[in-house]
Write a structure and sequence with these properties.
The chain has 568 residues and is mainly α. The chain is built from 27 helices and two strands. β1 and β2 form a beta hairpin. α16 packs across α26.
Protein backbone atom coordinates (compact mmCIF):
# COMPACT_ATOMS: atom_id res chain seq x y z
CA UNK A 1 0.00 0.00 0.00
CA UNK A 2 2.82 2.37 0.95
CA UNK A 3 4.64 1.44 -2.24
CA UNK A 4 1.51 2.19 -4.27
CA UNK A 5 1.15 5.60 -2.59
CA UNK A 6 4.79 6.40 -3.24
CA UNK A 7 4.40 5.56 -6.93
CA UNK A 8 1.25 7.71 -7.10
CA UNK A 9 2.96 10.64 -5.40
CA UNK A 10 6.04 10.34 -7.61
CA UNK A 11 3.82 10.29 -10.70
CA UNK A 12 1.97 13.40 -9.51
CA UNK A 13 5.26 15.20 -8.84
CA UNK A 14 6.53 14.23 -12.30
CA UNK A 15 3.33 15.57 -13.91
CA UNK A 16 3.57 18.87 -12.04
CA UNK A 17 7.23 19.22 -13.06
CA UNK A 18 6.25 18.53 -16.70
CA UNK A 19 3.45 21.11 -16.53
CA UNK A 20 5.73 23.77 -15.03
CA UNK A 21 8.46 22.98 -17.57
CA UNK A 22 6.02 23.33 -20.49
CA UNK A 23 4.62 26.62 -19.18
CA UNK A 24 8.07 28.10 -18.63
CA UNK A 25 9.62 26.77 -21.84
CA UNK A 26 6.82 27.50 -24.29
CA UNK A 27 4.40 30.01 -22.76
CA UNK A 28 6.58 32.34 -20.71
CA UNK A 29 10.19 32.38 -21.94
CA UNK A 30 9.41 32.90 -25.68
CA UNK A 31 7.25 35.93 -24.88
CA UNK A 32 9.78 37.34 -22.45
CA UNK A 33 12.40 36.82 -25.11
CA UNK A 34 10.31 38.88 -27.52
CA UNK A 35 10.56 41.79 -25.10
CA UNK A 36 14.29 41.32 -24.66
CA UNK A 37 14.81 41.14 -28.42
CA UNK A 38 12.84 44.34 -28.91
CA UNK A 39 14.43 46.48 -26.21
CA UNK A 40 17.80 44.92 -25.40
CA UNK A 41 20.61 45.08 -27.94
CA UNK A 42 24.11 43.92 -27.02
CA UNK A 43 23.11 43.49 -23.38
CA UNK A 44 21.94 47.07 -22.85
CA UNK A 45 18.49 48.61 -22.74
CA UNK A 46 17.75 50.57 -25.88
CA UNK A 47 14.92 51.74 -28.06
CA UNK A 48 16.65 51.46 -31.41
CA UNK A 49 13.95 49.13 -32.75
CA UNK A 50 11.29 51.68 -31.78
CA UNK A 51 13.20 54.36 -33.67
CA UNK A 52 13.50 52.06 -36.70
CA UNK A 53 9.76 51.41 -36.68
CA UNK A 54 8.95 55.11 -36.36
CA UNK A 55 11.29 55.90 -39.26
CA UNK A 56 9.98 53.10 -41.46
CA UNK A 57 7.24 54.43 -43.72
CA UNK A 58 6.08 50.89 -44.56
CA UNK A 59 5.86 49.86 -40.91
CA UNK A 60 3.92 52.96 -39.91
CA UNK A 61 1.67 52.58 -42.94
CA UNK A 62 0.95 48.96 -41.98
CA UNK A 63 0.02 50.02 -38.44
CA UNK A 64 -2.32 52.70 -39.77
CA UNK A 65 -3.85 50.28 -42.30
CA UNK A 66 -4.48 47.66 -39.60
CA UNK A 67 -6.39 50.05 -37.39
CA UNK A 68 -8.36 51.48 -40.34
CA UNK A 69 -9.28 47.95 -41.46
CA UNK A 70 -10.24 46.93 -37.92
CA UNK A 71 -12.44 50.00 -37.42
CA UNK A 72 -14.18 49.69 -40.81
CA UNK A 73 -14.62 45.92 -40.49
CA UNK A 74 -16.33 46.31 -37.12
CA UNK A 75 -18.93 48.48 -38.88
CA UNK A 76 -19.39 46.81 -42.28
CA UNK A 77 -19.31 43.22 -41.03
CA UNK A 78 -21.87 44.00 -38.34
CA UNK A 79 -24.16 45.56 -40.93
CA UNK A 80 -23.88 42.48 -43.15
CA UNK A 81 -24.09 40.03 -40.24
CA UNK A 82 -27.17 41.62 -38.68
CA UNK A 83 -28.85 41.71 -42.09
CA UNK A 84 -28.13 38.01 -42.66
CA UNK A 85 -29.55 36.98 -39.30
CA UNK A 86 -32.68 39.09 -39.78
CA UNK A 87 -33.18 37.59 -43.25
CA UNK A 88 -32.81 33.99 -42.11
CA UNK A 89 -34.48 34.10 -38.68
CA UNK A 90 -36.58 37.26 -38.19
CA UNK A 91 -38.27 38.29 -41.43
CA UNK A 92 -40.44 36.05 -43.58
CA UNK A 93 -38.31 35.84 -46.72
CA UNK A 94 -39.05 33.52 -49.64
CA UNK A 95 -36.36 30.84 -49.93
CA UNK A 96 -34.88 31.61 -46.51
CA UNK A 97 -33.69 28.02 -46.06
CA UNK A 98 -31.66 28.24 -49.28
CA UNK A 99 -30.34 31.65 -48.22
CA UNK A 100 -29.31 30.19 -44.86
CA UNK A 101 -27.26 27.49 -46.60
CA UNK A 102 -25.53 30.11 -48.74
CA UNK A 103 -24.85 32.46 -45.86
CA UNK A 104 -23.58 29.58 -43.71
CA UNK A 105 -21.04 28.62 -46.38
CA UNK A 106 -18.60 30.93 -44.61
CA UNK A 107 -18.45 28.32 -41.82
CA UNK A 108 -16.80 25.82 -44.20
CA UNK A 109 -15.28 28.15 -46.80
CA UNK A 110 -13.09 30.49 -44.81
CA UNK A 111 -9.54 31.55 -44.02
CA UNK A 112 -6.89 31.03 -46.65
CA UNK A 113 -9.17 28.97 -48.94
CA UNK A 114 -11.78 31.75 -49.00
CA UNK A 115 -9.16 34.42 -49.77
CA UNK A 116 -7.81 32.18 -52.53
CA UNK A 117 -11.36 31.65 -53.83
CA UNK A 118 -11.99 35.40 -54.02
CA UNK A 119 -8.66 35.84 -55.77
CA UNK A 120 -9.61 33.15 -58.29
CA UNK A 121 -12.93 34.85 -59.02
CA UNK A 122 -12.03 38.55 -58.85
CA UNK A 123 -8.21 38.64 -59.02
CA UNK A 124 -5.89 39.57 -61.87
CA UNK A 125 -6.47 36.21 -63.60
CA UNK A 126 -9.93 35.71 -62.11
CA UNK A 127 -13.00 34.51 -63.94
CA UNK A 128 -15.01 37.68 -63.30
CA UNK A 129 -12.02 39.78 -64.37
CA UNK A 130 -11.76 37.84 -67.67
CA UNK A 131 -15.50 38.31 -68.16
CA UNK A 132 -15.39 42.06 -67.51
CA UNK A 133 -12.41 42.55 -69.83
CA UNK A 134 -14.54 41.29 -72.70
CA UNK A 135 -16.81 44.30 -72.24
CA UNK A 136 -14.34 46.80 -70.76
CA UNK A 137 -10.95 46.20 -72.44
CA UNK A 138 -9.44 49.22 -70.67
CA UNK A 139 -10.23 47.78 -67.23
CA UNK A 140 -7.19 47.34 -65.00
CA UNK A 141 -6.81 43.54 -64.44
CA UNK A 142 -5.70 44.33 -60.89
CA UNK A 143 -8.92 46.18 -60.09
CA UNK A 144 -9.71 43.86 -57.15
CA UNK A 145 -6.81 44.89 -54.92
CA UNK A 146 -6.10 47.17 -52.01
CA UNK A 147 -8.17 48.29 -49.05
CA UNK A 148 -11.63 48.21 -50.72
CA UNK A 149 -11.09 44.62 -51.92
CA UNK A 150 -9.84 43.42 -48.53
CA UNK A 151 -12.69 45.15 -46.70
CA UNK A 152 -15.24 43.74 -49.16
CA UNK A 153 -13.98 40.18 -48.76
CA UNK A 154 -13.64 40.31 -44.97
CA UNK A 155 -17.02 42.01 -44.49
CA UNK A 156 -18.64 38.85 -45.84
CA UNK A 157 -16.01 36.34 -44.70
CA UNK A 158 -16.16 37.26 -40.99
CA UNK A 159 -19.91 36.84 -40.50
CA UNK A 160 -19.43 33.30 -39.20
CA UNK A 161 -19.63 34.69 -35.65
CA UNK A 162 -23.02 36.22 -36.43
CA UNK A 163 -24.32 32.99 -37.97
CA UNK A 164 -23.47 31.10 -34.78
CA UNK A 165 -23.84 33.50 -31.85
CA UNK A 166 -26.18 36.25 -33.05
CA UNK A 167 -28.67 33.71 -34.43
CA UNK A 168 -28.62 31.97 -31.06
CA UNK A 169 -29.24 35.25 -29.27
CA UNK A 170 -32.14 36.15 -31.57
CA UNK A 171 -33.85 32.85 -30.77
CA UNK A 172 -33.88 33.89 -27.10
CA UNK A 173 -35.70 37.15 -27.77
CA UNK A 174 -39.02 37.27 -25.92
CA UNK A 175 -41.62 36.99 -28.71
CA UNK A 176 -44.37 38.05 -26.29
CA UNK A 177 -42.65 41.44 -26.00
CA UNK A 178 -42.81 41.81 -29.78
CA UNK A 179 -46.50 40.91 -29.74
CA UNK A 180 -47.15 43.40 -26.95
CA UNK A 181 -45.39 46.18 -28.86
CA UNK A 182 -47.40 45.38 -31.99
CA UNK A 183 -50.68 45.43 -30.05
CA UNK A 184 -49.73 48.89 -28.77
CA UNK A 185 -49.45 50.10 -32.36
CA UNK A 186 -45.68 50.11 -32.75
CA UNK A 187 -44.44 49.92 -36.34
CA UNK A 188 -42.13 47.14 -37.57
CA UNK A 189 -39.21 49.54 -37.68
CA UNK A 190 -39.82 50.70 -34.13
CA UNK A 191 -40.17 47.13 -32.84
CA UNK A 192 -36.91 46.16 -34.55
CA UNK A 193 -34.93 49.18 -33.32
CA UNK A 194 -36.48 49.57 -29.85
CA UNK A 195 -37.26 45.99 -28.84
CA UNK A 196 -35.26 43.42 -30.81
CA UNK A 197 -31.86 45.04 -31.42
CA UNK A 198 -31.47 46.38 -27.84
CA UNK A 199 -31.93 42.80 -26.63
CA UNK A 200 -29.08 41.72 -28.91
CA UNK A 201 -26.84 44.60 -27.80
CA UNK A 202 -24.61 42.56 -25.41
CA UNK A 203 -23.77 40.02 -28.12
CA UNK A 204 -23.29 42.76 -30.71
CA UNK A 205 -20.82 44.60 -28.47
CA UNK A 206 -18.77 41.43 -28.01
CA UNK A 207 -18.91 40.65 -31.73
CA UNK A 208 -17.82 44.20 -32.55
CA UNK A 209 -14.76 43.89 -30.34
CA UNK A 210 -13.90 40.47 -31.80
CA UNK A 211 -14.29 41.85 -35.34
CA UNK A 212 -11.97 44.73 -34.47
CA UNK A 213 -9.47 42.17 -33.20
CA UNK A 214 -9.85 40.10 -36.39
CA UNK A 215 -9.22 43.11 -38.61
CA UNK A 216 -6.23 44.14 -36.53
CA UNK A 217 -4.50 40.77 -36.91
CA UNK A 218 -5.60 39.96 -40.48
CA UNK A 219 -2.93 38.15 -42.51
CA UNK A 220 -4.18 36.00 -45.40
CA UNK A 221 -6.64 38.59 -46.76
CA UNK A 222 -4.16 41.47 -47.01
CA UNK A 223 -1.43 39.11 -48.27
CA UNK A 224 -3.49 37.66 -51.13
CA UNK A 225 -5.79 40.55 -52.02
CA UNK A 226 -4.16 43.61 -50.46
CA UNK A 227 -1.58 44.02 -53.21
CA UNK A 228 1.56 46.16 -52.85
CA UNK A 229 -0.36 49.27 -51.78
CA UNK A 230 -2.23 47.82 -48.80
CA UNK A 231 -0.40 45.80 -46.19
CA UNK A 232 -1.24 45.42 -42.51
CA UNK A 233 0.72 44.58 -39.36
CA UNK A 234 0.70 40.79 -39.70
CA UNK A 235 2.13 40.64 -43.26
CA UNK A 236 4.77 43.17 -42.18
CA UNK A 237 5.68 40.98 -39.18
CA UNK A 238 6.03 38.01 -41.53
CA UNK A 239 8.26 40.00 -43.87
CA UNK A 240 10.52 41.21 -41.05
CA UNK A 241 10.63 37.76 -39.39
CA UNK A 242 11.96 36.14 -42.57
CA UNK A 243 15.13 38.27 -42.28
CA UNK A 244 17.20 37.56 -39.12
CA UNK A 245 18.58 41.11 -39.18
CA UNK A 246 15.09 42.61 -38.78
CA UNK A 247 13.55 40.17 -36.31
CA UNK A 248 13.71 42.83 -33.61
CA UNK A 249 11.31 44.92 -35.71
CA UNK A 250 9.03 41.91 -36.16
CA UNK A 251 9.14 41.37 -32.41
CA UNK A 252 8.20 44.99 -31.67
CA UNK A 253 5.29 44.93 -34.12
CA UNK A 254 4.14 41.66 -32.54
CA UNK A 255 4.18 43.35 -29.13
CA UNK A 256 2.06 46.22 -30.50
CA UNK A 257 -0.40 43.70 -31.90
CA UNK A 258 -0.35 41.72 -28.65
CA UNK A 259 -1.01 44.77 -26.47
CA UNK A 260 -3.89 45.85 -28.70
CA UNK A 261 -5.47 42.38 -28.56
CA UNK A 262 -4.96 42.18 -24.80
CA UNK A 263 -6.79 45.50 -24.35
CA UNK A 264 -9.62 44.24 -26.54
CA UNK A 265 -9.85 41.01 -24.54
CA UNK A 266 -10.09 42.98 -21.29
CA UNK A 267 -12.90 45.02 -22.83
CA UNK A 268 -14.73 41.79 -23.75
CA UNK A 269 -14.36 40.50 -20.18
CA UNK A 270 -15.61 43.83 -18.80
CA UNK A 271 -18.67 43.72 -21.09
CA UNK A 272 -19.41 40.12 -20.05
CA UNK A 273 -19.13 41.07 -16.38
CA UNK A 274 -21.39 44.11 -16.63
CA UNK A 275 -24.04 42.62 -18.91
CA UNK A 276 -26.74 40.08 -18.24
CA UNK A 277 -27.04 37.80 -21.25
CA UNK A 278 -30.25 36.11 -20.17
CA UNK A 279 -32.91 37.50 -22.48
CA UNK A 280 -35.23 34.57 -23.07
CA UNK A 281 -38.92 34.65 -22.19
CA UNK A 282 -40.16 32.89 -19.08
CA UNK A 283 -43.08 31.38 -21.01
CA UNK A 284 -42.05 29.59 -24.18
CA UNK A 285 -43.83 31.04 -27.20
CA UNK A 286 -43.03 29.91 -30.72
CA UNK A 287 -41.38 32.72 -32.65
CA UNK A 288 -43.30 33.73 -35.76
CA UNK A 289 -41.30 35.31 -38.58
CA UNK A 290 -42.35 38.84 -39.41
CA UNK A 291 -43.64 39.61 -42.90
CA UNK A 292 -42.42 42.96 -44.23
CA UNK A 293 -45.61 44.97 -44.70
CA UNK A 294 -44.35 47.58 -47.17
CA UNK A 295 -44.45 46.01 -50.65
CA UNK A 296 -41.55 47.99 -52.10
CA UNK A 297 -39.28 47.50 -49.08
CA UNK A 298 -40.14 43.80 -49.10
CA UNK A 299 -39.11 43.55 -52.76
CA UNK A 300 -35.89 45.51 -52.16
CA UNK A 301 -34.95 43.33 -49.18
CA UNK A 302 -35.50 40.18 -51.25
CA UNK A 303 -33.29 41.54 -54.05
CA UNK A 304 -30.50 42.50 -51.64
CA UNK A 305 -30.77 39.12 -49.86
CA UNK A 306 -30.23 37.20 -53.09
CA UNK A 307 -27.43 39.48 -54.30
CA UNK A 308 -25.59 38.76 -51.05
CA UNK A 309 -26.38 35.07 -51.54
CA UNK A 310 -24.56 35.23 -54.90
CA UNK A 311 -21.60 37.01 -53.31
CA UNK A 312 -21.28 34.18 -50.79
CA UNK A 313 -21.84 31.26 -53.13
CA UNK A 314 -20.16 32.37 -56.38
CA UNK A 315 -16.53 31.88 -55.23
CA UNK A 316 -17.41 28.57 -53.58
CA UNK A 317 -19.34 27.18 -56.55
CA UNK A 318 -16.73 28.27 -59.09
CA UNK A 319 -13.90 26.75 -57.05
CA UNK A 320 -15.81 23.45 -56.88
CA UNK A 321 -16.70 23.59 -60.57
CA UNK A 322 -13.24 24.46 -61.83
CA UNK A 323 -11.61 21.85 -59.60
CA UNK A 324 -13.02 19.34 -62.10
CA UNK A 325 -11.52 21.07 -65.16
CA UNK A 326 -8.14 20.92 -66.86
CA UNK A 327 -5.37 23.47 -66.46
CA UNK A 328 -6.02 25.34 -69.70
CA UNK A 329 -9.66 25.93 -68.70
CA UNK A 330 -8.60 27.28 -65.32
CA UNK A 331 -6.16 29.62 -67.06
CA UNK A 332 -8.73 30.91 -69.55
CA UNK A 333 -11.72 30.88 -67.21
CA UNK A 334 -13.92 29.52 -70.03
CA UNK A 335 -15.93 26.39 -69.26
CA UNK A 336 -16.79 23.67 -71.76
CA UNK A 337 -18.00 20.09 -71.44
CA UNK A 338 -14.76 18.77 -72.95
CA UNK A 339 -12.69 20.39 -70.23
CA UNK A 340 -14.15 18.39 -67.34
CA UNK A 341 -11.81 15.79 -65.88
CA UNK A 342 -10.99 13.89 -62.70
CA UNK A 343 -7.26 14.28 -63.28
CA UNK A 344 -6.82 16.85 -60.51
CA UNK A 345 -8.45 14.58 -57.95
CA UNK A 346 -6.50 11.55 -59.13
CA UNK A 347 -3.28 13.54 -58.68
CA UNK A 348 -4.09 13.91 -54.97
CA UNK A 349 -4.15 10.12 -54.71
CA UNK A 350 -1.20 9.26 -56.95
CA UNK A 351 1.21 12.21 -57.13
CA UNK A 352 3.42 12.59 -54.06
CA UNK A 353 3.96 16.27 -54.74
CA UNK A 354 0.18 16.78 -54.72
CA UNK A 355 -0.87 14.67 -51.75
CA UNK A 356 2.14 15.41 -49.54
CA UNK A 357 0.88 18.84 -48.31
CA UNK A 358 -2.52 17.32 -47.60
CA UNK A 359 -0.96 14.43 -45.70
CA UNK A 360 1.39 16.82 -43.86
CA UNK A 361 -1.48 18.96 -42.59
CA UNK A 362 -3.54 15.92 -41.59
CA UNK A 363 -0.65 14.44 -39.60
CA UNK A 364 0.34 17.71 -37.88
CA UNK A 365 -3.26 18.68 -37.08
CA UNK A 366 -4.18 15.18 -35.93
CA UNK A 367 -1.12 14.65 -33.73
CA UNK A 368 -1.35 18.13 -32.16
CA UNK A 369 -5.08 17.77 -31.47
CA UNK A 370 -4.61 14.28 -30.00
CA UNK A 371 -1.77 15.38 -27.70
CA UNK A 372 -3.75 18.37 -26.45
CA UNK A 373 -6.91 16.34 -25.82
CA UNK A 374 -5.08 13.59 -23.90
CA UNK A 375 -3.07 16.10 -21.84
CA UNK A 376 -6.01 18.38 -21.06
CA UNK A 377 -8.29 15.47 -20.13
CA UNK A 378 -5.91 14.82 -17.25
CA UNK A 379 -4.93 18.42 -16.44
CA UNK A 380 -8.52 19.72 -16.49
CA UNK A 381 -9.50 16.89 -14.13
CA UNK A 382 -6.52 17.70 -11.91
CA UNK A 383 -7.48 21.38 -11.66
CA UNK A 384 -11.14 20.52 -11.08
CA UNK A 385 -10.53 17.96 -8.34
CA UNK A 386 -7.65 19.63 -6.53
CA UNK A 387 -8.49 23.30 -6.02
CA UNK A 388 -5.62 25.43 -4.73
CA UNK A 389 -4.04 28.79 -5.43
CA UNK A 390 -1.11 27.08 -7.11
CA UNK A 391 -3.37 25.11 -9.46
CA UNK A 392 -5.38 28.24 -10.20
CA UNK A 393 -2.14 30.01 -11.08
CA UNK A 394 -1.08 27.17 -13.40
CA UNK A 395 -4.50 27.24 -15.05
CA UNK A 396 -4.27 30.97 -15.69
CA UNK A 397 -0.86 30.46 -17.28
CA UNK A 398 -2.38 27.97 -19.70
CA UNK A 399 -4.74 30.73 -20.89
CA UNK A 400 -1.83 32.94 -22.03
CA UNK A 401 -2.30 31.93 -25.72
CA UNK A 402 -5.78 33.46 -25.51
CA UNK A 403 -4.30 36.77 -24.43
CA UNK A 404 -1.68 37.08 -27.17
CA UNK A 405 -1.80 36.58 -30.93
CA UNK A 406 -0.46 33.37 -32.46
CA UNK A 407 2.08 35.40 -34.44
CA UNK A 408 3.70 36.49 -31.18
CA UNK A 409 4.10 32.89 -30.03
CA UNK A 410 5.44 31.80 -33.41
CA UNK A 411 8.02 34.56 -33.46
CA UNK A 412 8.91 33.90 -29.82
CA UNK A 413 9.60 30.23 -30.56
CA UNK A 414 11.75 31.11 -33.57
CA UNK A 415 13.85 33.68 -31.71
CA UNK A 416 14.20 31.68 -28.48
CA UNK A 417 15.09 28.31 -29.93
CA UNK A 418 17.22 29.17 -32.97
CA UNK A 419 20.27 27.99 -31.01
CA UNK A 420 20.89 25.30 -28.34
CA UNK A 421 18.87 26.06 -25.21
CA UNK A 422 18.99 24.35 -21.82
CA UNK A 423 15.21 24.53 -21.49
CA UNK A 424 14.89 21.98 -24.29
CA UNK A 425 17.94 19.99 -23.20
CA UNK A 426 20.41 21.97 -25.29
CA UNK A 427 18.59 21.28 -28.55
CA UNK A 428 17.51 23.59 -31.40
CA UNK A 429 13.85 23.84 -32.49
CA UNK A 430 13.91 26.53 -35.17
CA UNK A 431 14.02 24.93 -38.60
CA UNK A 432 13.01 21.48 -37.34
CA UNK A 433 9.89 19.39 -37.96
CA UNK A 434 8.80 19.79 -34.31
CA UNK A 435 8.38 23.54 -33.96
CA UNK A 436 5.13 23.78 -35.95
CA UNK A 437 3.68 20.89 -33.95
CA UNK A 438 4.52 22.74 -30.73
CA UNK A 439 2.93 25.91 -32.11
CA UNK A 440 -0.28 24.05 -32.93
CA UNK A 441 -0.35 22.51 -29.44
CA UNK A 442 0.16 25.88 -27.73
CA UNK A 443 -2.74 27.67 -29.44
CA UNK A 444 -5.11 24.70 -28.89
CA UNK A 445 -4.61 24.55 -25.12
CA UNK A 446 -6.86 27.38 -23.77
CA UNK A 447 -10.05 26.42 -25.63
CA UNK A 448 -9.57 22.71 -24.94
CA UNK A 449 -8.88 23.25 -21.23
CA UNK A 450 -11.86 25.54 -20.73
CA UNK A 451 -14.36 23.25 -22.47
CA UNK A 452 -13.15 20.04 -20.80
CA UNK A 453 -13.05 21.62 -17.36
CA UNK A 454 -16.61 22.89 -17.84
CA UNK A 455 -17.65 19.37 -18.88
CA UNK A 456 -16.11 17.88 -15.75
CA UNK A 457 -18.04 20.36 -13.61
CA UNK A 458 -21.30 19.27 -15.27
CA UNK A 459 -20.56 15.62 -14.46
CA UNK A 460 -22.80 13.99 -11.84
CA UNK A 461 -20.44 13.30 -8.93
CA UNK A 462 -22.79 10.73 -7.41
CA UNK A 463 -21.74 8.31 -10.16
CA UNK A 464 -18.11 8.65 -9.11
CA UNK A 465 -19.03 8.25 -5.44
CA UNK A 466 -21.01 5.12 -6.22
CA UNK A 467 -18.06 3.59 -8.07
CA UNK A 468 -15.75 4.42 -5.17
CA UNK A 469 -18.15 2.83 -2.67
CA UNK A 470 -18.16 -0.33 -4.77
CA UNK A 471 -14.37 -0.51 -4.40
CA UNK A 472 -13.36 0.75 -7.85
CA UNK A 473 -9.90 2.27 -8.07
CA UNK A 474 -9.56 5.91 -9.28
CA UNK A 475 -8.09 4.95 -12.66
CA UNK A 476 -10.79 2.35 -13.28
CA UNK A 477 -13.48 4.85 -12.24
CA UNK A 478 -12.13 7.45 -14.62
CA UNK A 479 -11.88 5.06 -17.58
CA UNK A 480 -15.23 3.29 -17.10
CA UNK A 481 -17.44 5.97 -15.50
CA UNK A 482 -16.15 9.49 -16.13
CA UNK A 483 -14.46 9.23 -19.54
CA UNK A 484 -17.53 7.84 -21.39
CA UNK A 485 -19.49 10.91 -20.22
CA UNK A 486 -16.91 13.52 -21.27
CA UNK A 487 -15.71 11.66 -24.37
CA UNK A 488 -18.35 13.11 -26.77
CA UNK A 489 -17.29 16.65 -25.85
CA UNK A 490 -13.62 15.68 -26.04
CA UNK A 491 -14.13 14.26 -29.54
CA UNK A 492 -15.97 17.41 -30.60
CA UNK A 493 -13.10 19.58 -29.33
CA UNK A 494 -10.63 17.30 -31.10
CA UNK A 495 -12.59 17.74 -34.32
CA UNK A 496 -12.64 21.55 -33.99
CA UNK A 497 -8.93 21.73 -33.21
CA UNK A 498 -8.12 19.38 -36.09
CA UNK A 499 -10.31 21.35 -38.47
CA UNK A 500 -8.84 24.67 -37.35
CA UNK A 501 -5.26 23.74 -38.23
CA UNK A 502 -5.93 21.72 -41.36
CA UNK A 503 -5.83 24.82 -43.55
CA UNK A 504 -3.96 27.08 -41.11
CA UNK A 505 -1.73 29.68 -42.72
CA UNK A 506 -1.13 32.39 -40.13
CA UNK A 507 0.88 30.19 -37.74
CA UNK A 508 2.15 27.63 -40.25
CA UNK A 509 3.89 30.14 -42.51
CA UNK A 510 6.25 31.06 -39.66
CA UNK A 511 7.00 27.56 -38.41
CA UNK A 512 6.74 24.97 -41.19
CA UNK A 513 9.66 22.75 -42.19
CA UNK A 514 10.74 23.60 -45.78
CA UNK A 515 10.26 20.06 -47.15
CA UNK A 516 6.97 19.56 -45.31
CA UNK A 517 4.85 22.40 -46.61
CA UNK A 518 1.32 22.37 -45.07
CA UNK A 519 -1.89 22.99 -46.97
CA UNK A 520 -2.36 26.61 -45.94
CA UNK A 521 1.09 27.59 -47.21
CA UNK A 522 0.62 25.51 -50.39
CA UNK A 523 -2.71 27.18 -51.16
CA UNK A 524 -1.22 30.62 -50.59
CA UNK A 525 1.69 29.79 -52.93
CA UNK A 526 -0.80 28.71 -55.61
CA UNK A 527 -2.73 31.99 -55.22
CA UNK A 528 0.23 33.99 -56.54
CA UNK A 529 -0.30 35.38 -60.02
CA UNK A 530 3.01 33.84 -61.12
CA UNK A 531 2.10 30.34 -59.91
CA UNK A 532 1.71 27.71 -62.61
CA UNK A 533 -1.78 26.61 -63.59
CA UNK A 534 -1.29 23.03 -62.38
CA UNK A 535 -0.62 24.36 -58.87
CA UNK A 536 -3.81 26.43 -59.03
CA UNK A 537 -5.78 23.36 -60.12
CA UNK A 538 -4.47 21.26 -57.24
CA UNK A 539 -5.13 24.11 -54.77
CA UNK A 540 -8.80 24.05 -55.82
CA UNK A 541 -8.97 20.33 -55.09
CA UNK A 542 -7.42 21.06 -51.69
CA UNK A 543 -10.11 23.69 -51.10
CA UNK A 544 -12.94 21.31 -52.04
CA UNK A 545 -11.59 18.53 -49.82
CA UNK A 546 -11.16 20.98 -46.94
CA UNK A 547 -14.74 22.20 -47.38
CA UNK A 548 -15.98 18.61 -47.21
CA UNK A 549 -14.00 17.98 -44.02
CA UNK A 550 -15.15 21.32 -42.55
CA UNK A 551 -18.79 20.45 -43.32
CA UNK A 552 -18.48 17.10 -41.56
CA UNK A 553 -16.89 18.77 -38.53
CA UNK A 554 -19.55 21.50 -38.38
CA UNK A 555 -22.30 18.88 -38.50
CA UNK A 556 -20.52 16.74 -35.91
CA UNK A 557 -20.02 19.63 -33.48
CA UNK A 558 -23.07 21.85 -34.01
CA UNK A 559 -25.53 19.54 -35.72
CA UNK A 560 -25.56 16.68 -33.18
CA UNK A 561 -26.34 18.01 -29.75
CA UNK A 562 -24.39 21.25 -29.85
CA UNK A 563 -21.78 19.75 -27.50
CA UNK A 564 -19.41 22.70 -27.34
CA UNK A 565 -21.91 25.41 -26.49
CA UNK A 566 -23.55 23.09 -23.98
CA UNK A 567 -20.21 22.58 -22.24
CA UNK A 568 -19.51 26.29 -22.19
Amino acid sequence: MIKSMNVSNLLKIFIYVAIIWFIVAFLVVPNVNILLTSFYQNGTLGFESVTKILRSDKAMESLKNSFILAFCLAITCNIVGIFLVLITDYFDIKGSKLLLIGYSSVLVFGGIILANGYNFVYGENGIITHFLLNFFPSLNPKWFQGFPAVLFMMSFACTSLHMIFLRGALKNVDYQTIEAARNMGASQTRILTKVVLPTLKPVLITLTILLFQTGLGALSGPLIIGGPDFQTISPMILRFAQRPSSRDLAALLSIVLGVAQLVLLLIVLYVEKKTNYASGSKVKTKFVKQKIQNKWINTLVHIIAYIIFLIYTLPLLLVVLFSFTDSSTIGSGKLSLESFTLKNYLSILTDEGAYKPFLTSIVYSGVASFIVIVAMLYIARLFQKHKSRFNSFLEMMFYIPWLLPGLLFALGLIITYDKPNLLIFNNVLTGTIYIMLIGYIIVNIPFTLRVLKATYYSFDNTLEEAAKNLGAKPFYTFMRVILPVVLPTALAVFALNFNGHLSDYDLSVFLYYPTLKPLGVEIYTASDAQANIDAKAISMVYSVLLMIINSIVIYFVYGKGNKITTAL
